[in-house]
């Protein structure tokens, strides 16, 4: 039976799935497409490199604010109306980002862009959950997963190509035709199910009371958390009063948010966050797994391209091409997982997914600076297989046993978990990389001493190769020492990348037994049945 009893969409469910996925691809792509264009943006708008990073930070902060609120607003004003409003705001703000004459205006329009785009992912997920019957919901989430997992991988490559061949402003202008097409198709094909329509009517009869306090606490808490995660390593974490202040605001805001939202339930008012969902074991475990999935996905998406560009001389476009093998693995595996989820216990697919990622990450620790382009592509391909086997089952299991009327709340919180996990993963990667690089460099330097025969032999060999006449002996010796030091720095960096991969592998391995804590799906039903 369908998620909403007696409800069947008027149009083909797969056409609806493609329609809502269109805008999601556009929005998720923008989380990473601007990263490679930051130097061009800074130069064009007369800003420093550090100032230009707020183009990314402002986007993440606005995203963290709107994700948990989207489900609430969709229930009050209608999910279709909310979704179309989000698409329109995203399209208009993208156009204004492309026209921005200064960095402050670009940041302002970027925040507006994310406020519109942040509601698209949870809205699509809840639309798919209501549109498809339980036996086909896994396949629908596979389509959604293709957008969410593949788009961040494609983003840097596409952004680099557009910036190199045209202008950075076109990374925003390309959203406009997609937004127009999405609005047209949504208006013609999408409709709210009866449960949503009843909730909208009930909200209007009740005077349309918005939980302003809850909204303010969410903005304060998750906005501050994103600033901490994005700027922590850059400002040296707890040695920075700026970071400590925002962390304090995050902790206090979270405590107040929990107390306020639980109070809202006691007074029989609709809370902006349904925290009672965490009393359900399946939801809580799935929420944690979605956080770890986002943590691993974004950390590894940043890790490999950065290694290829900073240590092996790859361009942004060529590094992106190496990463594209991950998108290929996702395209191949997602439909397969969508079919398997209706035949195999979702918990076993999750266990296989985390085990596959853990093994792939341990295998990636074999990387070195002599690896070929094809080897880097194969490493990414192996790792992305496990990602495909996680996204669909987790998104299906998280709905198990949940009242269909809470689909919006479930989708909002699950997307929040993945996005906060992504920010935490990126922050973890940059911090561990910087700290461990210093540690490894300290240990390696201990071998660079005059008493080391290998060191002296290397210096003499390089000096001979660099020397051009007796007068250049001192310059050749300095050049030899410089090259050895650069090689030492590179090796320390590689060892720190390996440390990050090892830690991520352990995190994923720890998730394998967690799947057994989830409720077993009813016999004869797939994981996403209610």
Helix content: over 70%
Helix/strand-derived class?
mainly alpha
How much of the residues is beta strand, in percent? Answer: under 5%
Contiguous low-pLDDT stretches (5 residues minimum) are 1-5, 524-530
Topology:
Elements: H1 13-29, H2 38-45, H3 49-52, H4 54-77, H5 79-99, H6 103-117, H7 120-131, H8 134-165, H9 170-173, H10 175-189, H11 194-205, H12 212-231, H13 241-266, H14 281-312, H15 316-340, H16 346-364, H17 373-397, H18 407-445, H19 453-466, H20 473-511
Helix pairs in contact: 1-7, 1-8, 1-10, 4-5, 4-6, 4-7, 4-12, 4-18, 5-6, 5-7, 5-10, 7-8, 7-18, 8-15, 8-17, 12-13, 12-18, 14-15, 14-17, 14-18, 14-20, 15-17, 16-17, 16-20, 18-20, 19-20
Pfam families: MFS_1
Main location: membrane
Protein name: DHA2 family efflux MFS transporter permease subunit
């Amino acid at each position: 039976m369908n998620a909403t009893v007696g409800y069947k969409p008027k149009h083909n469910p797969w056409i609806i799935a493609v329609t809502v996925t269109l805008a999601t691809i556009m929005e998720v792509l923008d989380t990473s497409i601007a990263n490679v264009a930051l130097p061009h943006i800074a130069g064009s708008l007369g800003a420093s490199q550090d100032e230009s990073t707020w183009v990314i930070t402002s986007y993440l902060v606005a995203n963290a604010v709107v994700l948990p609120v989207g489900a609430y607003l969709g229930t009050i004003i209608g999910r279709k109306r909310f979704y179309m409003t989000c698409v329109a705001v995203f399209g208009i703000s993208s156009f204004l980002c492309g026209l921005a004459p200064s960095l402050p205006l670009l940041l302002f329009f970027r925040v507006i862009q994310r406020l519109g785009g942040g509601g698209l992912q949870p809205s699509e997920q809840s639309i798919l959950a209501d549109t498809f019957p339980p036996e086909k919901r896994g396949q629908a989430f596979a389509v959604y997963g293709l957008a969410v997992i593949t788009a961040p991988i494609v983003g840097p490559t596409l952004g680099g190509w557009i910036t190199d061949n045209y202008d950075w402003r076109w990374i925003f202008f390309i959203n406009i035709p997609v937004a127009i097409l999405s609005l047209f198709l949504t208006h013609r094909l999408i409709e709210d199910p009866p449960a949503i329509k009843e909730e909208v009517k009930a909200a209007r009869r009740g005077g349309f009371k918005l939980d302003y306090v809850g909204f303010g606490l969410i903005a304060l808490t998750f906005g501050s958390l994103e600033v901490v995660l994005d700027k922590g390593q850059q400002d040296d974490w707890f040695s920075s009063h700026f970071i400590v202040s925002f962390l304090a605001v995050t902790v206090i805001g979270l405590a107040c948010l929990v107390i306020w939202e639980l109070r809202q339930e006691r007074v029989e008012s609709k809370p902006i966050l349904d925290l009672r969902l965490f009393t359900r074991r399946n939801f809580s475990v799935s929420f944690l797994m979605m956080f770890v999935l986002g943590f691993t996905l974004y950390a590894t998406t940043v890790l490999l391209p950065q290694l290829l560009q900073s240590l092996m001389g790859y361009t942004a476009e060529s590094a992106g091409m190496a990463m594209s093998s991950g998108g290929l693995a996702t395209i191949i595996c997602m439909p397969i997982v969508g079919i398997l989820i209706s035949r195999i216990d979702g918990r076993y697919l999750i266990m296989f997914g985390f085990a596959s990622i853990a093994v792939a990450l341990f295998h990636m620790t074999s990387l070195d600076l002599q690896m070929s382009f094809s080897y880097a592509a194969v490493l990414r391909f192996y790792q992305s297989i496990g990602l495909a086997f996680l996204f669909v089952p987790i998104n299906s299991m998280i709905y198990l046993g949940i009242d269909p009327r809470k689909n919006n709340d479930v989708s909002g919180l699950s997307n929040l978990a993945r996005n906060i996990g992504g920010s935490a993963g990126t922050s973890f990667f940059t911090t561990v990389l910087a700290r461990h690089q210093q540690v490894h460099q300290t240990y390696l330097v201990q071998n660079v001493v005059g008493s080391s025969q290998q060191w002296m032999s290397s210096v003499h060999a390089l000096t001979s190769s660099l020397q051009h006449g007796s007068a250049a002996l001192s310059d050749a010796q300095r050049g030899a020492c410089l090259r050895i030091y650069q090689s030492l720095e590179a090796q320390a960096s590689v060892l720190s990348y390996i440390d990050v991969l090892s830690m991520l592998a352990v995190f994923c391995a720890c998730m394998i037994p967690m799947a057994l804590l989830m409720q077993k799906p009813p016999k004869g039903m797939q994981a996403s049945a209610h």
